[in-house]
Design brief:
homodimer; about 325 residues; alpha/beta; Rossmann fold; 2 domains; four-stranded parallel β-sheet; 13 helices; 10 strands; about 45% helix; about 15% strand; globular
Chain lengths: ~325, ~325
């Protein structure tokens, strides 16, 4: 297999996507520092375009395509933030985005994709149906598949958040991100270890969706059921992301469901920002494993802010 | 009566409070611009210390006191953001803050004041009881009364938000703030008209608490019942704030209760930030009276972000 993205590709990605993304702010809170016993820095990708870091990878993938590839459009199967981000990126380049979504995807998620001009293709709510429908769309249109995470262009794009983070706060001791499919975590690990070799990089996942922790222990991608409120983290690692995580990540820590909800609420109350449940998992890890962070300068990537205000978990 | 604060006093206030407050960011949204037909700039005082612009005035008042005055502490009667901001400011100066609150003040509001070290004095939930209890506390302690808005130190402090706003976005056509007691609006009007004479300054208030609009029409402070979700705006103008508003404000526009809730929700969804109902009133005014803002560069002061997450209005 070809080698993973290096800092050079990440910097190219950053130049490529710069006109199309926000350089998101870093927030701090003396109160949350006191509560955690650490010094916390929050990189606010909830303020990112389309409400999540996914716009970084999606823009990098879409703007990496040749003109001939681009003319045939892009496709993916996703009901989450990647779908909206890809639809937006495609619209910016003036090309089609075919988004395969399960019939039971929520109205807000459909509206978000449609609002960015994505062409929704509904299918049965099974992984098999999603993959076969997506393959059909690609066969029919010639569109390029843009996988949500198992794609080097996506990994390099997601990594740009860590580049900005370390430009703004160069002396972080540790950086922690949520881990679902591993696009954000693997990209963050490459960027952070390249820019600051001594930094620790941790993944955070729900105890009830701890496939990444188990995969690291087993030395292979483990498939297990995920039952968590953190809907962005229900996916498994991919064969591009897993080896990068094995080579560059110092550990995966887990948090309880109650802890995720409590951490999410605390972020809302103190920082006055909306973050989605997946984004609160690193903060929940810090609350439940304070010994891992005591006295350290901790960078947390708040991955997204797309929540259903009619279905808050408290 | 002595003249109102001038730009010079506002600049002095800004220097005085600078170590104790945030310089809050200004957010924009292409989506909200499209929806409004105007170019909107949001000055995020919901990110201010203690969660509201009130920290500006409270810090200016507390740090304006002589050493002898300060030694006897400060007092106020309030159950809202001013109470927490004053408690915090007093703690920063290392002096006592006596906060008279009605017995039925909510637990979060008491906790906020207590969390900043304020000494809570409970009283019956009537204005008469609040004023007499506050007078007793002052007679007993010699504390200085810091009124929530009808005080030139408070007005000058609140005005500093507009100074920062125009430093960051110098070419605003109009600036709009909520109006309750008028501290923020009067200070904003002095600062904005001094720095940019041609600017329009508007107040925004709930239709169901339109005492400020009626006061301007009547030429005197009108007392009328306020029944609004915007709990920060249920107060009347004062004899310091009203003449400033008469002289410097171009108009007061109103919004419906449904419009306030809808605008609040839209700000949460799009900007991914928490704002309290009072903060959403200017946005509601823009939605309900778009002709006042069409094509203009509109500065909106988002006054605060202290909301009860267990009692959201949707």
């Amino acid at each position: 297999m070809h080698p993973p993205p290096r800092l050079e590709e990440i910097r190219q990605a950053h130049e490529r996507i710069r006109p199309h993304i926000h350089r998101t702010p870093v927030l701090t809170s003396a109160l949350l520092d006191r509560e955690s016993g650490a010094r916390l820095f929050f990189k606010c990708e909830n303020f990112q375009k389309a409400g999540a870091f996914k716009s970084r990878g999606a823009c990098n993938a879409v703007f990496s395509l040749s003109a001939a590839e681009a003319a045939r459009g892009v496709a993916t199967h996703s009901s989450g933030n990647h779908a909206a981000a890809l639809a937006r990126a495609a619209a910016l380049r003036g090309i089609s985005a075919h988004i395969v979504m399960p019939q039971n995807a929520s109205a807000p998620k459909r509206q978000s994709v449609a609002g960015f001009g994505g062409q929704i293709v509904l299918c049965e709510p099974t992984l098999a149906a999603r993959e076969s429908t997506c393959a059909e769309v690609i066969a029919r249109t010639g569109a390029t598949l843009i996988h949500p995470y198992n794609d080097d262009r996506i990994i390099a794009g997601q990594a740009t958040a860590a580049v900005e983070f370390l430009e703004e706060v160069p002396d972080l001791d540790v950086v922690i991100t949520p881990v679902g499919g591993g696009g954000l975590l693997s990209g963050t690990a490459i960027a952070a270890k390249s820019l600051r070799p001594g930094i620790r990089v941790l993944g955070a996942e729900p105890l009830q969706a701890d496939d990444a922790a188990e995969s690291l222990r087993a030395g292979r991608i483990v498939d297990k059921p995920a039952r968590t409120i953190a809907d962005g983290l229900r996916t498994l690692l991919g064969d591009r992301t897993f080896p990068i995580i094995q080579a560059n990540v110092d550990g995966i820590a887990t948090a309880s469901e109650d802890g995720i909800v409590a951490a999410m609420r605390r972020l809302w109350e103190v920082l006055k920002i909306l973050v989605e449940p997946s984004s609160a998992v690193p903060s929940a890890v810090i609350r439940e494993h304070p010994e891992l962070f005591a006295g350290q300068r901790v960078g947390i990537i708040l991955s997204g802010g797309n929540v259903d205000l009619d279905a808050l978990p408290w």
